Amino acid sequence: MRGTPAGPVLAADIRSAMVVAGLGLARTLRAAGRTRDALPVLRLALQERAPDGEGDPLAVQLELSDMLEETGQTREAMEVLEQAFQQVHRFYGPEAVQVCRRLASLLQESGNHIQACEVLEHALDLLQDGSRALP
């Protein structure tokens, strides 16, 4: 129907497509050895979130943290992972465990051993809770 407003679903779909396209472009740039060019693309993709918070771009956060670490920006990589951890720390899933492992690794490298152990302990709790939930 022509002239009918698209509504909020369309806006969320566009935001989601922008996140996916940004992640794809950043990965292409990285594969071409242009990691520094990929960083602003990922930062922009992180800004595109659905208004209700649905579809949080965890893959973008993981990719961004990896690229930041690769380019020697460890502190910022930890900040990105800490934000991801705050979003997934209550939910079991491979993404949550991956965030915990990577954050703990960076914390350990930076000398924050106690925090690294706390994050790993949380990951183990997630795994234990997740295995209980399986039939």
From TrEMBL:
Gene3D superfamilies: Tetratricopeptide repeat domain. It comes from the Bacteria. It comes from Streptomyces roseus. This is Tetratricopeptide repeat protein.
